[in-house]
Structure formats: structure tokens, C-alpha cells
């Protein structure tokens, strides 16, 4: 999509400024051609874009050669698209144009108007976007199956300083430093701190009272790579609100506390621990009888019978019945809408009324709730996308070189 946005603004500069000279075939590309007018338009666009951005303009010969090569590659990919029968529907094209307009803080009407205000053709812009979508489809089809990212590669990348700096969140950390020559006993301080935090006391107050550093324990906001190397492995394991073990350094003994984290990847999600019993209606036990049986099972549970045993005896869910109906921990979006709605409205340790989902009749019990930090999962997703993009560019470059080498190309004298 970034490519499309750049393309749009080049087109906005001179989308209608075709050469007024007599056109001719400049390059033969297999069964297709590149026209001289195509080359001249690209040269003119490049120079106008360079004038706006301040970029260096190559010599006339070098610029022409670069543009000719780019148009050859483009033509080869469009020929593949035509042979493969790739079509871009008006709906897909409209969605893409609208997205480009939104990313530039314009309505579609303002976007069209901005093109026309430049004296250019909106239809030409649409046509160029369609060509770009076709090329993108060809590239995805030819390259994506060549890309493989192993778990080991992902883990190794996540452990690099590049990944930690680029993708990792900022951490707000406090410490208690007891200096080597201090009169305070670190073991006594540590035990008191842990006991105080467990009882709900604010660590900020504790660090201000105990810490013997100049900042009263405040280490501020930093990426993990900004903290001393001695702290980094410990901070990677800490959850918000947790106290570390004692860390020894040349300055003394440190107790770290992760106070908060921030950044685009930071994400917290509520999760529910649930168990259930499912009855799937069938010919022997139709829907109404399944409902009646579920009502009686619930009554037995309320009378004190064991959930695990009743789930093992009656539940039609093969994945959970031998586990006492336990489904484990899950956040929103894992279960069907009907199940999730009841789960989210249920009180802890109360058996729900029987309810119907697409699978059949259920009763459920929420046995726990928690807020889980999903930041590391989001960072892993971003890291995967980063590695995929990098490999995609490498594979694409190689594929385009092969495509160029295998094609029949005849560049006419200019």
C-alpha cells in the first residue's frame, strides 16, 4: 500500500502530461511493447517529484536507463497477470482508492478534486492503481510460497538488539538500591518489600523510603536496551506489578519493580477460565429432550453433585468431557457468540442457566478471570511480519531478475 500511495502522488504531479511528440515503440518486451511516451512521462514525473522532495536527479542517460528497466519489469509482470486471467473488480479498485484517500486525510470527493485541481485525470490515476494491484497480485503469487520463517529464526530475531529497540515497548521501572557499604540488610529489606507489595502497598513509596540511589528508585521510561545489561534478562520476565529477585552489582544490591509499559505493541486482554457441559441434539435425543436433560443436570449440580463427574458422564464435547468440562483460559473471540455472551455475563463459580448455541445445549461455569499481558505475542507478530517483508523483498528481487533474464527484450535506439 505504501507503494500505491507514492505512485498516486507521482501521478498527481503530471498524470495528464503525456508527451506531445509523435509516439513510437521504444522497447519490445516479449509480445508487448513500451512506448516512448511512457518513458517520457515517467521521466517528467520523476523530475517533478525530485524537485519537490529535493532528491538527486541522475544524468539524463542514467535516468532513462533506470526508467526503461522499471517499465520492462512492469510490462513483464502485467503480461503474467493477463495470461493468468487476473482481474481487478471495480469494487476492489474503489476500496483501494478510498483507502489511499483516507491515509492522506481526504474524503474520496476531496481526493478526486485534488487530482483535477492539478489538471490531471482521475481515470488515469484509477488505471495506474489497477495496474499496480495486478502487479502486486502477481508478486504475491510468485514469491510468497518461497518464503519460510522457522520458529528458531523468529526467536533469534526477537533476541537481537534491533528487534528489542524497534519493536519492544518502553518500560517504567523502579528500583530499590541498597549500597554495598549500607547499614541496611538487603535480606530484611527484600522480605519487607515483598510482604508490603503482596499486601497492596505502593512500591513507589517503598522505593522512596528504602532506595539509596539519587533518584529515589525512579529509573524512568526506557526501552529494555536502555537499561543496564545486568537488568535486562530479569526485566524481560517481569510482569507489571511484580518484584524481582535481588540483583548484585558493583554498586550494591538491586530490587527491580516493573511499574508500567507503553508503546504500539502493548496490549492487555481479559481472559476467562471456563468449564461447561454440552448436549448435542440427535435423533435419539431431539432438541426439546436435550434441553430437559440439561435442566436436570443443572439441578443436580446445584444440589451439590460433582461437575467433573457429570461432565464425563453426559457431555458431548470430546475435547473437554474427560477434563471435567474444562476449557482452560481464553479471551474474547474464541467461542461462539451465544457462549461468549453468557460467559461474559456470568458471576464467578455460578452455574449458568441452560442456553442454546449453534452446537447444542450448554451450561457453563466461570471458575476464574484474569488480565493477561499480550504484548509479547503482538511483538512476535510484528517481528514475523518484519522478517516476512524483508525476505519477500529479497525473493522478489531475485524473481524479477530471473524474469528479466528469461524474457525477449529489444531496446530500440533512442
UniProtKB/TrEMBL annotation:
Transmembrane segments: none
Known EC number: 5.2.1.8
Gene Ontology MF: a single term: peptidyl-prolyl cis-trans isomerase activity
Reaction equations catalysed: [protein]-peptidylproline (omega=180) = [protein]-peptidylproline (omega=0)
Keywords noted in UniProt: Chaperone, Isomerase, Periplasm, Repeat, Rotamase, Signal
Major localization listed first in the record, in broad terms: periplasm
Protein name stated in the entry: Chaperone SurA
Originating organism: SAR86 cluster bacterium
